[in-house]
Structures are given as structure tokens and as C-alpha cells.
Amino acid sequence: MRDPAERAAIARIEREEWEHRAIVLSCSSVWMLSRSAYATLDAHRRVAVAGACFVIGRFLAMYFAGRLESSNIGEYVDGAMSAQRLERFADERTFERLARVEAEHERFFRNAVRGTRRCR
Hints:
By secondary structure, the protein is mostly helical. It has one domain (4-115). The protein is elongated, with a radius of gyration of 15 Å. 84% of the residues lie in helices and 0% in strands. It has helices at 4-26, 33-85, 89-113. The chain contains 3 helices and no strands.
């Protein structure tokens, strides 16, 4: 990756993802235990996508990163709905905020592949 702005944006996204993981894993509520398993799986998927960049190239790496972000939005929306049902309103707001950040990440990756030869 040669574009310094793109490199900086991806570094910011990575920092935010680590923050999200810490938020999810730090919750001590029993209802969150299944989320920690999700976060562990998610960490492995992210490492696989990052490592694949060297093999599959920029387009596919950006495409799959965007798909991963898109699925994360749904996970956080599900978490917010679960928190709402359990009347854990602070957790609900946290998950809603995380979902919005994931949507920003997904837009970044979608825009990164827009207009490339393989995307037309």
C-alpha cells in the first residue's frame, strides 16, 4: 500500500477494532459471554484477511475487509437488541455506537474498491 492517507485510515480502523474488542471482552455480564467467543473468532478472521493481503492483492483484501465490517454491524445491532431486551440501556447505547463505527469502516472499504477494474 503506497497511499499514506489510506495507510493512516487503515491504521485508525485497526485501532478502533482493538478498542471494540476490548469493550466487548471487558463486559462482565453473563449475557455477553457468547460475544467474547465471537470476538475471538473475529480476531482470527481479521488476522487471516490481513495476512492474505500479500497473496490476494489489494482489491480482494479491501473487499473482504468490507464484508467483514458489514457482518460486524449486524453483530453489534444484535447485541444492542439483546441489551435492550435485558434493560441494559448503557450496553445498548454502546453497541449502537460500535455499529455506527463499523458502518464507517464498511464505507471506507467499499469506497476503496469502487471504480476498480474488478468492480465495474
